[in-house]
Amino acid sequence: MILIGATLVLVAFFFHLNRGEFIEKQAYFAIAFMALYIVVYLFVPSQLNGTSVRTGQLYEYIPLISLGAILFPHLNSKSPEGITQILGWLGLISVSIILCIFKIFVW
Questions:
Q1: Could you list the residue ranges that cross the membrane (predicted)?
Q2: Virtual CA dihedral for 51, 52, 56, 57, nearest 10 degrees?
Q3: Would you tell me how many other CB atoms lie within 10 Å of the CB of residue 78?
Q4: Which residues, given as ranges, of the chain have pLDDT below 70?
Protein backbone atom coordinates (compact mmCIF):
# COMPACT_ATOMS: atom_id res chain seq x y z
CA MET A 1 0.00 0.00 0.00
CA ILE A 2 2.99 2.28 0.40
CA LEU A 3 3.35 2.09 -3.38
CA ILE A 4 -0.02 3.77 -3.98
CA GLY A 5 0.53 6.48 -1.38
CA ALA A 6 4.05 7.32 -2.49
CA THR A 7 2.99 7.39 -6.15
CA LEU A 8 0.13 9.77 -5.36
CA VAL A 9 2.51 12.03 -3.44
CA LEU A 10 5.01 12.06 -6.33
CA VAL A 11 2.32 12.83 -8.90
CA ALA A 12 0.68 15.53 -6.75
CA PHE A 13 4.06 17.14 -6.09
CA PHE A 14 4.88 17.03 -9.81
CA PHE A 15 1.63 18.75 -10.80
CA HIS A 16 1.98 21.27 -7.98
CA LEU A 17 5.46 22.28 -9.13
CA ASN A 18 4.47 22.43 -12.80
CA ARG A 19 1.09 24.16 -12.54
CA GLY A 20 0.62 26.63 -15.34
CA GLU A 21 3.58 25.22 -17.27
CA PHE A 22 3.80 22.93 -20.28
CA ILE A 23 3.98 19.28 -19.23
CA GLU A 24 5.58 16.80 -21.61
CA LYS A 25 3.57 13.82 -22.85
CA GLN A 26 6.29 11.62 -21.40
CA ALA A 27 5.15 12.54 -17.88
CA TYR A 28 1.56 11.51 -18.63
CA PHE A 29 2.76 8.22 -20.15
CA ALA A 30 4.93 7.54 -17.10
CA ILE A 31 2.02 8.18 -14.73
CA ALA A 32 -0.29 5.95 -16.78
CA PHE A 33 2.36 3.22 -16.97
CA MET A 34 2.86 3.41 -13.21
CA ALA A 35 -0.91 3.13 -12.67
CA LEU A 36 -0.96 0.01 -14.86
CA TYR A 37 2.03 -1.37 -12.95
CA ILE A 38 0.23 -0.84 -9.63
CA VAL A 39 -2.87 -2.65 -10.93
CA VAL A 40 -0.79 -5.63 -12.06
CA TYR A 41 1.30 -5.65 -8.87
CA LEU A 42 -1.61 -5.46 -6.44
CA PHE A 43 -4.59 -7.04 -8.18
CA VAL A 44 -3.29 -9.78 -10.48
CA PRO A 45 -3.08 -12.88 -8.32
CA SER A 46 0.10 -14.91 -8.23
CA GLN A 47 0.25 -18.70 -8.22
CA LEU A 48 1.97 -18.84 -4.82
CA ASN A 49 1.20 -16.83 -1.72
CA GLY A 50 4.78 -16.42 -0.48
CA THR A 51 6.03 -12.97 0.42
CA SER A 52 9.42 -11.57 1.24
CA VAL A 53 10.81 -8.25 2.42
CA ARG A 54 13.23 -8.26 -0.51
CA THR A 55 10.33 -8.69 -2.93
CA GLY A 56 8.71 -5.55 -1.59
CA GLN A 57 11.93 -3.62 -1.99
CA LEU A 58 12.32 -4.66 -5.61
CA TYR A 59 8.73 -4.25 -6.70
CA GLU A 60 7.91 -1.08 -4.76
CA TYR A 61 11.02 1.04 -4.37
CA ILE A 62 12.60 0.65 -7.81
CA PRO A 63 9.43 1.73 -9.68
CA LEU A 64 9.06 4.71 -7.34
CA ILE A 65 12.66 5.78 -7.90
CA SER A 66 12.22 5.28 -11.64
CA LEU A 67 9.03 7.35 -11.70
CA GLY A 68 10.82 10.06 -9.73
CA ALA A 69 13.66 10.04 -12.27
CA ILE A 70 11.19 10.44 -15.12
CA LEU A 71 9.15 13.20 -13.49
CA PHE A 72 12.03 15.07 -11.83
CA PRO A 73 15.13 14.58 -14.02
CA HIS A 74 16.54 17.97 -13.02
CA LEU A 75 17.25 16.66 -9.51
CA ASN A 76 20.15 14.61 -10.90
CA SER A 77 22.63 17.40 -11.60
CA LYS A 78 25.45 15.04 -12.65
CA SER A 79 23.68 13.72 -15.76
CA PRO A 80 21.70 15.36 -18.55
CA GLU A 81 17.93 15.31 -18.06
CA GLY A 82 17.40 13.07 -21.09
CA ILE A 83 19.75 10.41 -19.76
CA THR A 84 18.07 10.49 -16.34
CA GLN A 85 14.66 10.02 -17.95
CA ILE A 86 15.93 7.15 -20.10
CA LEU A 87 17.35 5.43 -17.02
CA GLY A 88 14.02 5.97 -15.26
CA TRP A 89 12.14 4.36 -18.13
CA LEU A 90 14.65 1.51 -18.22
CA GLY A 91 14.09 0.84 -14.53
CA LEU A 92 10.31 1.05 -14.74
CA ILE A 93 10.03 -1.17 -17.81
CA SER A 94 12.58 -3.69 -16.50
CA VAL A 95 10.82 -4.15 -13.18
CA SER A 96 7.48 -4.43 -14.98
CA ILE A 97 8.80 -7.19 -17.22
CA ILE A 98 10.34 -9.02 -14.26
CA LEU A 99 7.06 -8.70 -12.33
CA CYS A 100 5.03 -10.11 -15.23
CA ILE A 101 7.45 -13.02 -15.69
CA PHE A 102 7.30 -13.87 -12.00
CA LYS A 103 3.51 -13.52 -11.80
CA ILE A 104 3.01 -15.78 -14.83
CA PHE A 105 5.74 -18.41 -14.50
CA VAL A 106 7.17 -18.47 -10.99
CA TRP A 107 4.62 -17.41 -8.39
A1: 29-46, 58-75, 87-106
A2: -170
A3: 6
A4: 46-56, 107
Tally of CA atoms within 13 A in the half-sphere of 87 that contains its CB: 13
Residue 59 carries which side chain, given as an amino acid letter?
Y
pTM score of the predicted model: 0.88
**64 close to 6: Cβ distance less than 8 angstroms:** yes
**DSSP output for 30-69:** HHHHHHHHHHHHHHSPPSS----HHHHIIIIIHHHHHHHH
d(CA 104, CA 90) in angstroms, rounded, equals 21
Distance CA 41, CA 96 (A): 9
Domains of the chain: which residue ranges?
Answer: 2-106
Q: How far apart are CA 72 and CA 18, in angstroms?
A: 11
